[in-house]
Amino acid sequence: MSKYVILVVPIIFSTTAQLLIKVASQKPYSSFGWFCFIALSLVSYVLSFVFYSVAVRYFPISVASTVNTVSVMLLVIIFGVVLWSESLSVTQILGICLGFVSVALILYK
Asked: What's the structural domain count of the chain?
């Protein structure tokens, strides 16, 4: 298994957790649906931390942490736009582009 796959897995789980929290926020507070999405989010966060602990074995923490954080941010923004029709300003789009560039530069050797 590629070490880059190990770096991507916690990003997927962390992004999923944040999207599940967004879905939960659209349910009535303390309803069964709200609890289900919150529980799934917690499970996803736990899996994210477990896989992140593996990723830092293969990458310096300065790389793993930065790539993880920026990648989750970028994915959450993209899903927010696609799934919930959230809008972005030109300045925000420029920031997103810079985020992609920063991840590429950090991973480039």
From this structure: 1
